[in-house]
Task: inverse folding
C-alpha cells in the first residue's frame, strides 16, 4: 500500500544532487509549458519547495546523543555502528519480534517524498527523503484492537554515542504518536536522503518523519517500536513540559514560551537570509487538520 | 614581587589604542567567517552568539582589573575603561545582529522584547551599559565626581544580567553559561566589604 500520498514532485530514485536539481528544473519548465495536467497553482507550490543542499541537511543537525552543538552530530556520529541493526516491535501486535533492518527493507516499498522540515527552534529545511510509510511497517507487525499510541525509542549505546555520557536527558530518547497520526499516509520511516543512504547524523539507518510536527518528533536511529494503549511521555515533554508537549504540531499561532513560532529561518540562505512565515501544520493543513478537529491546539501543544 | 613589577612595567608600555585594535580584530574576522561558511551552516545565530560571548568575556576582564591590583598588586587600571567600552561595543553589535539579521521584523522585535524574559533581561543589561559608555571620558569623571563611581557600579548589574541571559538562551541547562555565572559571582564576591571584626557593641 505504498504511494498513498501523491507528491507534487515526481522525481524518484534520485541519485545525485546536481542531477536532481537539474531534473527538477526541467520538470518545472515542462510543467510550466503546459506539458502536465497541473494547475498553475500546483506548479507554483512545488516550485516554492526548493530542496536544501545535501551539505546543509547533513551538517546542521540536532542529535543530542552526539552533543548539543549543531555540528557535533556530523563530527561524532561516524562512530555509530548501524549494521547489523535490529528493530524490536512489541506491545499490542500480532507478530512481536526483533526485526532485522535488512529484512524490513526487503518487505517495504521505498519511495521519495520531498517534505518541509521545521525545527522547534524556528529554522527549517526542505528535505527529499527516501523511505516508506510507517503504516506499512505497522501492518507487517499487525496492530491489535484497542491500540491507541505508538512509542518509539532511539538506540542507547554510550560507547558510540558520546553525548549519552552526560545525563541531562534520561536516555534513551523516547517519542510517541497517536495511532491515527502514525497511520497517516504522510508519516514515514526515512532510510535515505537524496537517494543515498541516510547519514548517521540524520538518524541512520531508520528514522521517523512526521512533516507537520516539529523536528524533535521525528525520532532518529530507532531500535524499538511499541504499540500501546497509553500515551507515551516523550523526552522533550519530560525535560520541559511547559515548553514542549506531546503533539508538537507546527503552529505559527502558538508560540514557544521563549520565542515566536510565527516565522522561520530557511537554512542555506547565508548571513542575509530573511525569515519567512511559518505555515499552519507546516503546510500540510489540508491533509492533517481533521486529525485535530475540536482540539484546542494552544492547550494540546 | 619582581614578576608583578615586570607585568606592571610592561603594561605601562602598552598603548591603549593597541588594546582597542587587538580586541576589535575579531569583528571583521567573524564577518569573514560568517560569509565563507566558517561559522557553520547558519551564520546568523552563530555570529550573534560569538559577539555576545566576547562581550561577556570583556565584561569579566573588566571585573578582574581591581581585584588584580588589590590582591596581586598587578596594576592594569589604565585599561579598565578600554575593556568597558569594548564590552559595550560588542553588546551593541550583538544587539544589532539580533535586530537586523536575526529577527528583522519590527513588530516581532518589540513583541520579543516584551514577551520573552531572556530578551527583556538582555535588553535591560544593554540599557544599563548605555549611561556607563556615555560617561566613559575624563570630562564626565570630573563633572560627576563621587556620583561617577556610584553610577559605574551598575556594571555589576549589567554583567549579572548578561550571564543570566546567556543561561536562559539555551534549550537545556548547559555547563558553559553556568561557569560564566560562577566566575562572575566569584569576582563580585571579592568586592563584598569585609565584616568588621571586634565591633564594639
Result:
Amino acid at each position: 500500500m505504498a504511494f498513498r500520498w501523491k507528491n507534487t514532485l515526481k522525481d524518484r530514485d534520485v541519485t545525485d544532487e546536481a542531477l536532481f536539481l537539474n531534473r527538477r528544473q526541467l520538470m518545472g519548465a515542462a510543467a510550466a509549458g503546459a506539458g502536465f495536467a497541473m494547475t498553475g497553482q500546483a506548479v507554483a507550490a512545488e516550485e516554492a519547495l526548493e530542496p536544501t543542499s545535501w551539505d546543509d541537511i547533513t551538517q546542521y543537525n540536532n542529535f543530542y546523543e552526539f552533543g548539543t552543538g549543531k555540528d557535533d552530530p556530523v563530527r561524532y556520529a561516524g562512530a555509530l555502528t548501524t549494521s547489523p541493526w535490529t528493530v524490536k516491535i512489541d506491545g499490542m501486535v500480532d507478530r512481536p519480534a526483533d526485526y532485522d533492518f535488512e529484512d524490513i527493507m526487503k518487505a517495504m516499498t521505498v519511495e521519495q517524498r520531498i517534505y518541509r522540515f521545521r525545527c522547534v527552534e524556528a529554522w527549517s529545511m526542505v528535505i527529499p527523503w527516501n523511505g516508506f510509510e510507517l503504516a506499512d511497517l505497522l501492518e507487517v507487525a499487525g496492530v491489535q484492537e484497542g491500540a491507541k499510541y505508538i512509542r518509539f525509542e532511539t538506540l542507547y549505546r554510550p560507547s558510540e554515542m558520546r553525548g549519552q555520557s552526560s545525563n541531562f536527558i534520561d536516555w534513551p530518547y523516547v517519542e510517541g504518536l497517536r495511532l491515527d497520526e502514525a497511520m497517516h499516509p504522510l508519516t514515514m520511516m526515512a532510510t535515505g536522503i537524496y537517494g543515498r543512504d541516510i547519514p548517521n547524523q540524520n538518524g541512520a539507518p531508520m528514522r521517523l518523519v512526521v512533516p507537520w510536527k516539529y523536528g524533535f518528533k521525528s525520532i532518529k536511529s530507532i531500535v524499538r517500536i511499541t504499540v500501546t494503549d497509553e500515551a507515551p511521555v516523550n523526552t522533550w515533554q519530560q525535560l520541559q513540559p511547559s515548553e514542549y508537549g506531546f503533539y508538537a504540531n507546527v503552529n505559527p499561532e502558538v508560540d514557544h514560551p521563549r520565542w515566536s513560532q510565527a516565522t522561520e529561518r530557511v537554512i542555506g540562505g547565508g548571513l542575509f537570509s530573511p525569515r519567512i512565515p511559518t505555515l499552519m501544520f507546516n503546510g500540510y493543513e489540508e491533509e492533517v487538520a481533521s486529525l485535530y478537529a475540536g482540539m484546542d491546539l494552544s492547550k494540546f501543544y | 614581587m619582581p614578576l608583578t613589577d615586570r607585568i606592571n612595567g610592561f603594561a605601562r608600555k602598552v598603548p591603549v589604542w593597541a588594546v582597542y585594535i587587538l580586541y576589535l580584530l575579531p569583528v571583521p574576522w567573524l564577518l569573514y567567517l560568517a560569509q565563507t561558511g566558517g561559522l557553520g551552516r547558519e551564520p546568523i545565530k552563530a555570529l550573534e552568539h560569538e559577539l555576545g560571548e566576547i562581550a561577556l568575556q570583556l565584561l569579566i576582564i573588566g571585573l578582574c582589573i581591581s581585584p588584580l591590583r588589590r590582591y596581586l598588586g598587578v596594576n592594569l587600571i589604565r585599561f579598565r575603561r578600554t575593556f568597558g567600552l569594548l564590552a559595550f561595543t560588542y553588546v551593541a553589535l550583538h544587539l544589532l545582529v539580533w535586530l537586523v539579521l536575526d529577527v528583522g521584523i519590527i513588530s516581532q522585535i518589540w513583541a520579543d522584547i516584551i514577551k520573552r524574559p531572556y530578551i527583556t533581561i538582555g535588553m535591560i543589561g544593554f540599557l544599563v551599559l548605555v549611561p556607563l559608555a556615555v560617561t566613559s571620558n575624563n570630562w564626565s569623571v570630573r563633572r560627576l565626581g563621587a556620583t561617577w563611581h556610584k553610577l559605574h557600579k551598575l556594571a555589576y548589574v549589567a554583567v549579572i544580567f548578561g550571564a543570566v541571559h546567556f543561561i536562559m538562551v539555551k534549550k537545556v541547562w548547559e555547563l558553559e553559561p553556568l561557569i560564566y555565572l560562577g566566575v562572575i559571582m566569584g569576582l563580585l564576591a571579592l568586592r563584598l566589604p569585609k565584616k568588621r571584626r571586634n565591633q564594639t557593641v
User: Anything to note?
Assistant: Chain B has one domain: 3-200. Residues 3-200 of chain B form one domain. Chain B has a mean pLDDT of 93.
